[in-house]
Amino acid sequence: MARSAARHPYPWPGVIEAYRSYLPVSAKTPIVTLLEGNTPLIRSRVLSRRVGASAEVYLKYEGMNPTGSFKDRGMTLAISKAVEEKSAAVLCASTGNTSASASAYAARAGLRSIVLIPSGAIALGKLSQALIHGARIASVEANFDACLALVKSLAQMHPITIVNSINPYRIEGQKTCAFEICDALGRAPDIHITPVGNAGNITAQWRGYREYRANGKTRTLPTMLGFQAEGAAPLVKGKIIANPKTIATAIKIGNPASWQGAISASEESHGFIRAVSDREILDAYRLLAAEDGVFVEPASAASVAGLLKLAHAGYFKSAAARRRSRLVIVCIVTGHGLKDPERAIKSIRVPKPLPPSLSAISKAVGLH
Ligand SMILES: *Cc1c(COP(=O)(O)O)cnc(C)c1O
Asked: Is the minimum distance from the CB of 100 to ligand 1 under 6 angstroms?
């Protein structure tokens, strides 16, 4: 099949205008956008090399969205619909990125935003975003799952809109990631790999691929592979995890809201959901930054850690042999590395101050 990538609208109008016919909007919907989407699909040199001759690996760099994560794809729609429905305020529980996105889009729409965050468990960059966009923030002594339960109770008592991924518009907007991948490749990938936390994203991406095929835009569907962190892997263990633990705070979730969506995506596509350790996540995190020039947050590296683990076990080699063709693999990297600068600084040796002497500097930086 000849690959012919679809032509993007130019200038890029944001995901709602770009994919309007696939989304629940009408002429009456006021579109609140920061021109999210249209993120780079980058061929990974280091991962293609590591996987070997059996595959070509791409990174969908979702950190390039306006607030630095894929959450903006769903948030543009959730906030647009909240304005259409004349909501006065929006509310969410967040491991960080949902609050960053909700507060930015709410600011743009002139809505109040209220966020509940697990205290001490969100990355500094994300907290600073919610603060500067003017969210009312409650830092709660409880984990994400408990914060989400509190949000549901608050929304029953007040006329405010929840913008977590239990809001169906979030999932609808997040489908656009799959559309963009197919448009850029001129086909669907063979394998799609994504980090899984609350599981809204894998649910949305699978729906997106199916809708594109149903509309004749693509002829095939990818195998969907999801990766959770070992200490926060309820979908792998088949039970709720009361005290999830991982350094990857964006996927530190013990009771995913879209549990069934994730199971359906993996089963219907003949894929699976598995776990990677924090060490594997951090190794992938450093590898991407050092050898591909792509800086992501730790949770985002779970997809890449999963890819490397499967490559090591020969999974892609046998999959390519079965299909008698080279595989096209897309790893979703969900958020920007600058979200969590503390983790980056912890992961490397920070240089000590030197006197302003050429010899001391040359020695320190390896110029002899
Ligand atoms: C929200 C988030 C995830 C998890 O996505 P789910 O839809 O909850 O599975 C992964 N990575 C980052 C950076 C996120 O912000």
From this structure: no
Cite the DSSP H helix spans in the chain.
15-18, 45-51, 71-84, 97-109, 124-132, 144-157, 168-174, 176-185, 200-214, 234-237, 259-268, 278-287, 301-312, 315-323, 341-347, 358-365
pLDDT digits (tens, 9 = 90+) for 131-141: 999 999 999 99
Reported as a single tens digit per residue, the pLDDT across 219-235 is: 999 999 999 999 999 99
Atom of ligand 1 nearest to the CA of 339: 13
Count CB-CB contacts under 10 A for residue 173. 31
Mutate-to-test residue for ligand 1 from 194, 251, 255, highest number of ligand atoms within 8 A of CB = 251
The number of angstroms, rounded, from the C-alpha of 94 to the middle of its chain's C-alpha atoms is 14
Q: pLDDT of 163-205, one tens digit each?
A: 999 999 999 999 999 999 999 999 999 999 999 999 999 999 9
What is the pLDDT confidence band of residue 238, given thresholds at 50, 70 and 90? very high
Residue 62 has, within 13 A of its CA and on its CB side, a CA count of 28
| pTM, rounded to two decimals | 0.96
CB of 72 closer than 6 A to ligand 1? Answer: no
For residue 321, is it left (φ>0), alpha (ψ between -120 and 50) or beta?
Answer: alpha
Q: Is the CB of 300 under 6 A from ligand 1?
A: yes
Q: What is the mean pLDDT of residues 37-59?
A: 96
Atom of ligand 1 nearest to the CA of 199: 9
Structure tokens at 58: 């791409």
Two tokens at 302? 């779970």
Residue 334 Cα to ligand 1 midpoint, Å, equals: 6
